[in-house]
Structures are given as structure tokens and as C-alpha cells.
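Supplementary Note 3. Input sequence used for the single-chain structure prediction.
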Amino acid sequence: MGRINRANLKKTIYYLKRNGIKNTWYAVLERLDERKQPPYIWNPPPESRLAEQRARWQRARQTRDAASLTFSILVPVYRTKPEYLRELLDSLSAQTYPWWEVILADATEDDSVEQMLRGSSGPGEVELVSSGQGGLAAQDFSPTLSGGRIRYIHLEKNAGIAENTNQALPYAAGDYIGLLDHDDILTPDALHEMAAAIGQERERGLEPAFLYSDEDKCNGDRTEYFEPNFKEDFNLDLLLSNNYICHFLVMKRELMQELGFRPEYDGAQDFDLVLRAAARLKGREQDISHIPKVLYHWRCHPGSTAENPQSKRHAYEAGRRAVQDFADGQGWRVRAVDTAHVGFYSLRYEGDIFESRTDIGAVGGRVVGRGRVADRRVASRAGGPGYNLPRGRGKIVGGRMSRDGQVLYEGLPVHYSGYLHRAVLSQDAEAVDLRNIRVRPECRELFRQITGIDYRTMPGTDRFDVSQLPEGSDICALSLKLCEALRKEGYRILYLPVQDFDAIPAECGRTRERTS
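The predicted structure, written as C-alpha cells, is reproduced below.
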């Protein structure tokens, strides 16, 4: 991140127009700080590992042990550069997992794509499918020595990416359907990793509804890789803030065919699909799996969404409408709005958030201070060392925490948005800091049992007044204990770094430097 080029200059100008000089200044400072970090280097899987994977599936092919797990990859094609499509097909040909098919739904006006396919040495024989034919059964997969097979559909017209993909959906025969843009690339172990993860989940008695991996970006000629997206395990509220799932996604065939793609969300049709799948799976989040490996390269060129936000402004507007549709379907009284960063959203709740979100047991916000803080213990009341911080110099010292008490985004300047803007996005949390917390009224007796005191609020707010705790109380331990108890009761912990919760000073903080 933080590369200086023409595209980034365009992004900066666009950001300035939307957010003003002050916010742009901090955004530029953050990008410059990012340039000081070691560069990202994508290391392809070593050939020895790929050879082991090929050998594993070759043995499975001989015994037919894995023939019941198959993948269909849907690729809407439209005026695709031949070299890009060839590289996409080459990336499929290089897959170490053999049971796959790719379905190309081509809306190009002429037959250039079809002619290119006929003349190429692709991953398998090209099967031409007319619009009246149905798909093949999963057991009909017959991988060639070089991999799976290509199935090609020439569409009558370009009806938009959602409808074009819908026309390919009925032909998918795999157990899982994957989505691949017509100019992007899969790593050679992508389908192997998906198949292996599904196998592991099945051994646990689970059947994943959908799986997703990490991803990165590459330039047009794939000589440079950058902006890796190392993702979280499924996080509903983070998903409502941004389509962090994105690529590479595979979903159970029956689920994707049932949900389909909605043309009114063109440009954000994949995001809309994932949100509707998440709504269907609410309460069954164990059926959503994250593979923490980069399996997808998102190609950036001047016309792509990844390179030029304004080129697909309608996509971000469609994404906001998809978030609103999800919230409306849940019965929440809320309005989805854009944030300072295109493609990132915020939910503005009408009235008390706990009235709309019966799934939330506590809401937490940021705590700011002058530096890194480890010993979060109660000291004096109001007027402690968190007050009167010089403007712009505050750093995050508390807020969202992991189960072991580590503060996410710790040390980040309060005006920075963090890695992929996640530090300013709403998100589910394992725990939040008691110094900036609101607890659901029905859960305040549980709060009393955990902390030993009644839930009393700061004047004019519904936040817990942490100064009520006895001096020397371990804020970190109590925060973790309370949030664990809430999660065991089936509640979600929501971290709101901005919006309803401003970043408050670490007022209860005669803090010490980290000693361990």
C-alpha cells in the first residue's frame, strides 16, 4: 500500500473532494507512514508442495475417493483482452486439484472469444453449450490429464454482470460454485485448499455453506503484487461495513442457485449474494469457513474497480443498497450510509441500538491515550492523564480486544483508519474495553455478578462509569470476563470505533509502560 502513481493521485483528489482538507491531510500522512513498512512480497507455493498436492489427487483419482467433491467456476466474459483470458485459463490449467469445470458466459458481441478458445491449448476440451441445454450431473466430471474442462456459453446480449452470471448458473454441475472475474488469476493451489478445507470440516461433522480465502492485487502484466487482504474469520458486522470477503469465494451449488444474482445490484452482485447467504445462515456461522491464504490475484488496470474507484461508483452505491436491504430484512431501524472511504459503509441506528439489535449484549468504543498502554488498571477519577491531549496526537490504547487481551489497532493514531480502514469500521469483537462500553439493560445483572458492582453510567450517557470500580481493578481481566460471559449467553459484542462512540480519553489511567 501507499504506492505513488497516477491511480493513487486520482484517489487522493477524489478523497479531497469528498472529505475536505483536514481528513485528506491525515489520510496522506497515513499512506506515507505505510510506505515505511516492508514491502509486500507474494511468494508462490513451492513446486515441491504443488507436486505433493498433484500426487495426492492423482491417487484419489485412481481410487475415485474424491470424485464426489467437484467445483464449477463461473466467469462472466465481456470484451475481455485475449491475453487476460488466456492467463485466467492457464491458472485453472495449473490447478493441482483436478475435479473442476469453468463455465464462460460470454456477452461479447462477436465470436472473438470463441475463436480464441478453439485455437488455444487450454486446460481441457471446449464444450459449446447452447442456451437450451441443462447442466451435467456431478458424477459426469471427467478431468483430462491437464485438468478440468471448459464449458462455453455465448449469450444473446450483454444484460449486465448479474444477469449474465445467472445465465451460467443452471449449467453448474459442481458441488461448490466459485466466482472468478474474467481478468483475474487463481493461485495453483486454490482449489486444493478449498477441497482440503471442506474435507476437514466434513470430518468435524460440518458441511460448509461457503468458504473464502485471502487475496491480493497485481498490476496488468503481473510483475508486481500489492495490497494483500488478510481477512478475518467470518465477522458479520465487519461484512456490513465492507465486502471484505470478496475473492476467492466458493458456495454450495444449491445455495447459490437458489439465491442467484439480482440485476438491481449490478456491480455489487457478489456482495449482495454473500449478504443474503449470511442472512440465510444467521445462527449457523460455523458453516462459513475462512482459509487464511492468498489464493486469488485481483488484477488492477485503469478500468478496474480496484484501480479507479470512480470507474465503478455505481458499484459502491449498489453495495450500500445491499447493506440496507440486509438490515431491512432483519427488521433493524437503521440507515446505511457511505463513510469517508468509497466502498465502506456505516449503519446509523434510529433510537437505541439495543432496541433494533436484540443479538447485541454490549457495544464498545475506542479509548485514546498518549502511547502504548498495557496495564489497564483503575486509578484516579475524571482528570486523569487522558485529558487535554494535544489535538491530533492521541493514539488508540483500548477498545476491541482479542480473547487473550491484546488490543487491536493499539498505538494507531486516532485520526488514522488503519489497515484496509478496519480500525474505523463497525465489527464484531471477542471483547471490548470497560472504559468505553455500553451494556444491554437485560445484561446488567450479569455485569454486576462479574464486576461486583452495579452498572452506573457516566452523566448524560448510557456508558458505564468505570471510575466506580475499586482502585487497582484490572480493567483488561474484567473486560475479558464480562464479554466471555455475554458471548456464552448467546450475545454478540459490537465494536463501534466511531459514530455512536467517540474515542474517549483513557481517563481511568495512571498507566505504566509495558513491562512484558
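The first helix runs from residue 6 to 34. Confidence is low (pLDDT under 50) at residues 131-146, 371-375, 380-392, 508-516.
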